[in-house]
Design a protein that fits this description.
With 297 residues, the chain is mainly α. The protein has helices at residues 5-14, 21-29, 32-37, 48-61, 71-84, 101-113, 119-132, 162-179, 183-198, 228-237, 247-255, 285-294; strands at residues 85-86, 89-90. β1 and β2 form a beta hairpin. α6 runs parallel beside α8. The longest helix is centred in the middle third of the chain and has 18 residues, at 162-179.
Length: 297
Protein backbone atom coordinates (compact mmCIF):
# COMPACT_ATOMS: atom_id res chain seq x y z
CA UNK A 1 0.00 0.00 0.00
CA UNK A 2 1.39 3.36 -1.04
CA UNK A 3 1.99 5.78 1.83
CA UNK A 4 -0.06 8.95 1.79
CA UNK A 5 2.14 11.99 1.17
CA UNK A 6 0.83 13.73 4.30
CA UNK A 7 2.30 10.91 6.39
CA UNK A 8 5.53 11.17 4.41
CA UNK A 9 5.62 14.86 5.33
CA UNK A 10 4.89 14.10 8.98
CA UNK A 11 7.75 11.60 9.17
CA UNK A 12 10.21 13.98 7.51
CA UNK A 13 9.19 16.79 9.84
CA UNK A 14 9.51 14.62 12.95
CA UNK A 15 13.03 13.55 12.01
CA UNK A 16 14.15 17.15 11.54
CA UNK A 17 14.53 17.18 7.77
CA UNK A 18 14.80 20.60 6.15
CA UNK A 19 11.47 21.21 4.44
CA UNK A 20 10.63 24.34 2.49
CA UNK A 21 7.09 25.65 2.16
CA UNK A 22 7.21 24.69 -1.51
CA UNK A 23 8.15 21.10 -0.70
CA UNK A 24 5.47 20.90 1.97
CA UNK A 25 2.80 22.37 -0.29
CA UNK A 26 3.59 19.82 -2.98
CA UNK A 27 3.23 16.92 -0.53
CA UNK A 28 0.07 18.37 0.97
CA UNK A 29 -1.58 18.92 -2.41
CA UNK A 30 -0.78 15.35 -3.48
CA UNK A 31 -2.23 13.86 -0.30
CA UNK A 32 -5.55 12.04 -0.64
CA UNK A 33 -6.13 12.50 3.09
CA UNK A 34 -5.61 16.28 2.93
CA UNK A 35 -7.90 16.44 -0.10
CA UNK A 36 -10.67 14.84 1.98
CA UNK A 37 -9.97 17.05 4.99
CA UNK A 38 -10.26 20.18 2.86
CA UNK A 39 -13.73 19.31 1.59
CA UNK A 40 -16.04 21.92 3.04
CA UNK A 41 -18.21 20.47 5.84
CA UNK A 42 -21.86 20.09 4.94
CA UNK A 43 -23.13 21.56 8.20
CA UNK A 44 -24.42 25.13 8.12
CA UNK A 45 -21.96 27.43 9.85
CA UNK A 46 -24.63 29.46 11.61
CA UNK A 47 -25.61 26.36 13.55
CA UNK A 48 -23.81 24.94 16.60
CA UNK A 49 -22.95 21.75 14.70
CA UNK A 50 -21.50 23.79 11.84
CA UNK A 51 -18.98 25.53 14.08
CA UNK A 52 -17.97 22.19 15.55
CA UNK A 53 -17.53 20.68 12.06
CA UNK A 54 -14.90 23.27 11.16
CA UNK A 55 -13.28 22.78 14.56
CA UNK A 56 -12.98 19.02 13.98
CA UNK A 57 -11.45 19.43 10.53
CA UNK A 58 -8.89 21.90 11.87
CA UNK A 59 -8.09 19.61 14.80
CA UNK A 60 -7.29 16.85 12.31
CA UNK A 61 -5.31 19.12 10.00
CA UNK A 62 -3.22 20.27 12.96
CA UNK A 63 -1.70 16.77 13.07
CA UNK A 64 -0.15 17.36 9.64
CA UNK A 65 2.89 19.67 9.61
CA UNK A 66 2.65 22.77 7.41
CA UNK A 67 -1.11 22.33 6.90
CA UNK A 68 -1.50 25.87 8.22
CA UNK A 69 0.19 27.33 5.12
CA UNK A 70 -2.72 26.22 2.95
CA UNK A 71 -5.12 29.08 2.12
CA UNK A 72 -8.14 26.92 2.98
CA UNK A 73 -6.80 26.21 6.46
CA UNK A 74 -5.97 29.87 7.10
CA UNK A 75 -9.47 30.84 5.97
CA UNK A 76 -11.11 28.24 8.20
CA UNK A 77 -9.06 29.28 11.23
CA UNK A 78 -10.11 32.88 10.78
CA UNK A 79 -13.71 31.75 10.38
CA UNK A 80 -13.54 29.65 13.55
CA UNK A 81 -11.98 32.50 15.53
CA UNK A 82 -14.62 34.94 14.27
CA UNK A 83 -17.37 32.59 15.43
CA UNK A 84 -15.88 31.45 18.75
CA UNK A 85 -13.55 34.07 20.18
CA UNK A 86 -14.49 36.10 23.21
CA UNK A 87 -12.03 38.25 25.23
CA UNK A 88 -12.18 35.60 27.97
CA UNK A 89 -11.69 32.46 25.88
CA UNK A 90 -13.15 30.46 23.00
CA UNK A 91 -16.88 29.81 23.05
CA UNK A 92 -18.91 27.54 20.77
CA UNK A 93 -21.83 29.96 20.98
CA UNK A 94 -19.81 33.15 20.51
CA UNK A 95 -20.58 34.50 23.98
CA UNK A 96 -19.13 33.78 27.41
CA UNK A 97 -21.86 31.36 28.45
CA UNK A 98 -20.66 28.96 25.77
CA UNK A 99 -17.05 28.58 26.95
CA UNK A 100 -16.39 24.90 27.64
CA UNK A 101 -13.12 23.58 29.02
CA UNK A 102 -12.44 20.97 26.34
CA UNK A 103 -13.34 23.16 23.37
CA UNK A 104 -11.53 26.23 24.64
CA UNK A 105 -8.41 24.08 24.95
CA UNK A 106 -8.94 22.31 21.62
CA UNK A 107 -9.32 25.56 19.71
CA UNK A 108 -6.33 27.11 21.44
CA UNK A 109 -4.21 24.08 20.54
CA UNK A 110 -5.30 23.74 16.92
CA UNK A 111 -4.61 27.44 16.32
CA UNK A 112 -1.08 27.09 17.66
CA UNK A 113 -0.34 23.89 15.76
CA UNK A 114 -1.70 25.33 12.51
CA UNK A 115 0.37 28.49 12.86
CA UNK A 116 -2.34 31.06 13.60
CA UNK A 117 -0.49 34.33 14.11
CA UNK A 118 -2.81 36.34 16.38
CA UNK A 119 -1.21 35.51 19.70
CA UNK A 120 -3.56 37.69 21.71
CA UNK A 121 -6.43 35.36 20.80
CA UNK A 122 -4.43 32.31 21.84
CA UNK A 123 -3.37 34.06 25.05
CA UNK A 124 -7.05 34.54 25.94
CA UNK A 125 -7.71 30.81 25.66
CA UNK A 126 -4.63 29.97 27.72
CA UNK A 127 -5.53 32.60 30.32
CA UNK A 128 -8.94 30.96 30.77
CA UNK A 129 -7.21 27.64 31.53
CA UNK A 130 -4.84 29.24 34.03
CA UNK A 131 -7.63 31.07 35.82
CA UNK A 132 -10.54 28.66 35.72
CA UNK A 133 -9.61 25.06 34.89
CA UNK A 134 -10.18 22.94 37.98
CA UNK A 135 -7.59 20.24 38.60
CA UNK A 136 -8.76 18.69 41.84
CA UNK A 137 -11.92 17.09 43.19
CA UNK A 138 -13.93 19.54 45.22
CA UNK A 139 -12.06 22.55 43.85
CA UNK A 140 -14.42 25.48 43.34
CA UNK A 141 -14.44 26.87 39.80
CA UNK A 142 -15.12 30.59 39.82
CA UNK A 143 -16.08 30.82 36.15
CA UNK A 144 -19.63 32.15 35.83
CA UNK A 145 -20.48 31.13 32.26
CA UNK A 146 -23.68 29.07 32.36
CA UNK A 147 -23.05 26.22 29.89
CA UNK A 148 -19.98 24.94 31.72
CA UNK A 149 -22.02 23.76 34.69
CA UNK A 150 -25.52 23.26 33.30
CA UNK A 151 -26.07 22.57 29.60
CA UNK A 152 -23.28 20.00 29.25
CA UNK A 153 -23.72 18.13 32.50
CA UNK A 154 -21.36 19.98 34.78
CA UNK A 155 -17.85 20.08 33.35
CA UNK A 156 -16.40 21.31 36.63
CA UNK A 157 -18.67 20.63 39.54
CA UNK A 158 -17.40 18.38 42.34
CA UNK A 159 -15.22 16.44 39.88
CA UNK A 160 -13.66 18.19 36.88
CA UNK A 161 -14.28 16.55 33.50
CA UNK A 162 -11.24 14.38 32.90
CA UNK A 163 -11.15 15.17 29.20
CA UNK A 164 -11.22 18.88 29.98
CA UNK A 165 -8.19 18.43 32.21
CA UNK A 166 -6.30 16.48 29.54
CA UNK A 167 -7.11 18.89 26.72
CA UNK A 168 -6.17 21.87 28.88
CA UNK A 169 -2.81 20.32 29.75
CA UNK A 170 -2.22 19.60 26.05
CA UNK A 171 -2.90 23.28 25.29
CA UNK A 172 -0.52 24.49 28.00
CA UNK A 173 2.16 22.09 26.75
CA UNK A 174 1.82 23.36 23.18
CA UNK A 175 1.93 26.95 24.40
CA UNK A 176 5.09 26.24 26.39
CA UNK A 177 6.74 24.69 23.30
CA UNK A 178 6.00 27.73 21.18
CA UNK A 179 6.25 30.67 23.54
CA UNK A 180 8.34 29.44 26.43
CA UNK A 181 7.75 28.55 30.05
CA UNK A 182 6.43 30.70 32.86
CA UNK A 183 6.04 29.96 36.58
CA UNK A 184 2.25 30.09 36.23
CA UNK A 185 2.15 27.65 33.32
CA UNK A 186 4.67 25.30 34.92
CA UNK A 187 2.69 25.26 38.17
CA UNK A 188 -0.62 24.55 36.43
CA UNK A 189 0.96 21.86 34.26
CA UNK A 190 2.54 20.15 37.25
CA UNK A 191 -0.77 20.11 39.08
CA UNK A 192 -2.69 18.80 36.07
CA UNK A 193 -0.16 16.11 35.18
CA UNK A 194 -0.10 14.90 38.77
CA UNK A 195 -3.89 14.63 38.69
CA UNK A 196 -3.64 12.52 35.53
CA UNK A 197 -0.91 10.33 36.99
CA UNK A 198 -2.90 9.73 40.17
CA UNK A 199 -5.52 8.26 37.84
CA UNK A 200 -2.80 6.00 36.41
CA UNK A 201 -3.63 7.67 33.07
CA UNK A 202 -7.06 6.13 32.55
CA UNK A 203 -8.60 4.81 35.79
CA UNK A 204 -11.38 5.95 38.08
CA UNK A 205 -10.26 6.63 41.64
CA UNK A 206 -13.26 4.77 43.06
CA UNK A 207 -13.17 1.45 41.19
CA UNK A 208 -10.00 1.30 39.13
CA UNK A 209 -12.11 0.80 36.01
CA UNK A 210 -11.56 2.94 32.89
CA UNK A 211 -12.89 6.48 33.31
CA UNK A 212 -14.93 5.99 30.14
CA UNK A 213 -15.07 3.12 27.66
CA UNK A 214 -13.39 4.85 24.73
CA UNK A 215 -10.40 5.99 26.79
CA UNK A 216 -8.85 2.54 26.31
CA UNK A 217 -9.76 2.33 22.60
CA UNK A 218 -7.31 3.14 19.82
CA UNK A 219 -8.15 6.18 17.72
CA UNK A 220 -6.16 8.98 16.15
CA UNK A 221 -6.42 11.97 15.82
CA UNK A 222 -8.20 13.03 19.00
CA UNK A 223 -11.47 14.96 19.24
CA UNK A 224 -12.92 16.22 22.53
CA UNK A 225 -12.31 12.73 23.88
CA UNK A 226 -8.89 11.41 24.86
CA UNK A 227 -7.35 7.95 24.99
CA UNK A 228 -4.20 6.21 26.19
CA UNK A 229 -2.28 7.41 23.14
CA UNK A 230 -3.00 11.11 23.60
CA UNK A 231 -2.47 11.07 27.35
CA UNK A 232 0.82 9.18 27.14
CA UNK A 233 1.97 11.57 24.40
CA UNK A 234 1.14 14.46 26.72
CA UNK A 235 3.11 12.90 29.55
CA UNK A 236 6.05 12.15 27.25
CA UNK A 237 6.11 15.75 26.03
CA UNK A 238 6.54 16.75 29.67
CA UNK A 239 9.11 14.09 30.56
CA UNK A 240 6.66 12.17 32.77
CA UNK A 241 6.11 9.04 30.64
CA UNK A 242 8.59 6.97 32.67
CA UNK A 243 6.64 7.53 35.87
CA UNK A 244 5.65 4.11 37.30
CA UNK A 245 2.00 5.22 37.24
CA UNK A 246 2.12 5.06 33.41
CA UNK A 247 3.11 1.38 33.38
CA UNK A 248 -0.35 -0.17 33.16
CA UNK A 249 -1.46 2.17 30.39
CA UNK A 250 1.72 1.51 28.44
CA UNK A 251 1.34 -2.27 28.79
CA UNK A 252 -2.27 -2.08 27.68
CA UNK A 253 -1.28 -0.12 24.60
CA UNK A 254 1.53 -2.56 23.81
CA UNK A 255 -0.89 -5.49 23.98
CA UNK A 256 -2.95 -3.92 21.23
CA UNK A 257 -0.13 -4.30 18.70
CA UNK A 258 -1.03 -6.86 16.05
CA UNK A 259 1.14 -9.82 15.07
CA UNK A 260 1.85 -8.00 11.81
CA UNK A 261 3.45 -5.15 13.77
CA UNK A 262 0.58 -2.69 13.26
CA UNK A 263 -1.84 -1.03 15.61
CA UNK A 264 -5.43 -0.60 14.44
CA UNK A 265 -8.02 2.12 14.94
CA UNK A 266 -10.81 0.60 17.01
CA UNK A 267 -13.44 3.33 16.92
CA UNK A 268 -14.31 6.27 14.69
CA UNK A 269 -15.14 9.81 15.74
CA UNK A 270 -18.12 11.98 14.80
CA UNK A 271 -19.20 10.57 11.43
CA UNK A 272 -20.80 13.77 10.17
CA UNK A 273 -17.57 15.80 9.91
CA UNK A 274 -14.67 13.57 10.94
CA UNK A 275 -12.32 11.99 8.38
CA UNK A 276 -10.66 8.80 9.59
CA UNK A 277 -6.89 8.74 9.09
CA UNK A 278 -6.92 4.93 9.17
CA UNK A 279 -9.68 2.51 8.18
CA UNK A 280 -11.20 0.75 11.18
CA UNK A 281 -9.80 -2.63 12.19
CA UNK A 282 -7.18 -2.63 9.44
CA UNK A 283 -3.42 -2.17 9.77
CA UNK A 284 -3.15 1.54 10.55
CA UNK A 285 -0.29 3.47 8.95
CA UNK A 286 -0.90 6.67 10.92
CA UNK A 287 -1.78 5.20 14.29
CA UNK A 288 1.11 2.71 14.11
CA UNK A 289 3.56 5.49 13.32
CA UNK A 290 2.35 7.67 16.19
CA UNK A 291 2.25 4.83 18.73
CA UNK A 292 5.61 3.51 17.54
CA UNK A 293 7.23 6.89 18.17
CA UNK A 294 5.47 7.18 21.52
CA UNK A 295 6.80 3.82 22.68
CA UNK A 296 10.23 4.39 21.19
CA UNK A 297 9.93 1.67 18.55
Amino acid sequence: MKEDTALTLRKAYDTGEQITNEMATDLLRRSELVEQLLLKPKQRLELFVGIRAYEWRLVELSEIPFAGILPEVREWMQLLVTKTFTPEGFSLTGHRDGVLACHNALISTLLMKNGFNERDKIDAGISWILKYQSLERGEVCCWTGKDLNTRFGGCMKKVPCYYGVVKSMVALTEYKKRYGASPEIDSKLHQGLEYILRHEVFKKFSTGEPIEGSIVKNFYPFSYKSNLIEILLLLKDNGRHTDPRCAKATKLLLRKKGKDGYWRAEISQMKSAWIDFDALSRPGEWISYVVGRLLGR
